[in-house]
Amino acid sequence: MSDPNIEKLWFRRFQPSPQAASRLICFPHAGGSAVYYRPVALRLAGRADVLAVQYPGRQDRYTEPCLDDVRELAAQVHRVMGGLTDLPLTLFGHSMGASVAFEVARLLEADGHRLSRVFASGRRAPSRPHRGELVHQRDDDGIVAELKDLSGTDPAILADPEILRMVLPVLRSDYRAAETYRGTPGAVLTSPITALTGDADPQTPIPDAEAWAEHTSADFRLEVFPGGHFFLTERPQDVISLLADHLDALGAPA
């Protein structure tokens, strides 16, 4: 039996949808938190029960140690999901969150759960060669420079020394997790996958996004949006519309 208190620790439900026919779980990027997906949850309310994962070490979990290993993070998420598999389940992860979502999907499939779809956003496929990024080994200024290059962080945060002091350890830990992750050779889901990327994303060139096709024995789709690594922030309605169409199809009569 799942523990509702542990479940609330890990998952944020910004808008209850008690009559929803399916469930969507969203996984944040490196340095991100559950609140990043609040606009998604509000726009999709009624279509699905939308939850966002809250990783340890940030916001209301700031006293907990960060997890700097993607597989360990996925294992801990999976461990507390017992009460969330009663509805058709879709996973969405952006950047590092896509890797975590993929590993959670593997664990769920090992339990006998086939997912409605996994959306892997802004992240190269696990089978693509590691590019040798070592952002987590840079000094603080180097990490801030990376965030500025990706244009996904509020400039006011980057200019505030007190806020940076709190978030830099989280960022370093998450970058370590993302940059040391290596996909298991031959790992393939039986659940369908949609890969998303921006047409100007330096982190996920289109061929690296297309390679997610190697990781499913089911349907694969590729969606390319105008924008860089944080195209989801730049064009939220386009991504939300894609998710809405998917969720509506799940709720349609057979």
From TrEMBL:
Q: Which UniProt keywords apply?
A: Hydrolase
Is Transmembrane set as a keyword in this record?
no
* Claim: Hydrolase is one of the keywords in the record: yes
Recorded hits in InterPro entries, A to Z, give:
AB_hydrolase_fold (IPR029058), TEII (IPR012223), TesA-like (IPR020802), Thioesterase (IPR001031)
Q: Which Pfam families does the entry link to?
A: Thioesterase
Q: Where is the Thioesterase TesA-like domain?
A: 25-247
Q: Which GO terms describe its biological process?
A: lipid biosynthetic process
Output the superkingdom of the source species.
Bacteria
Q: Name one GO molecular function term.
A: hydrolase activity
SMART domains recorded for this chain?
Answer: PKS_TE
Q: What PANTHER family would the database entry show?
A: S-ACYL FATTY ACID SYNTHASE THIOESTERASE, MEDIUM CHAIN, THIOESTERASE
Q: Which family does it belong to?
A: Belongs to the thioesterase family.
Q: What is this protein called?
A: Surfactin synthase thioesterase subunit
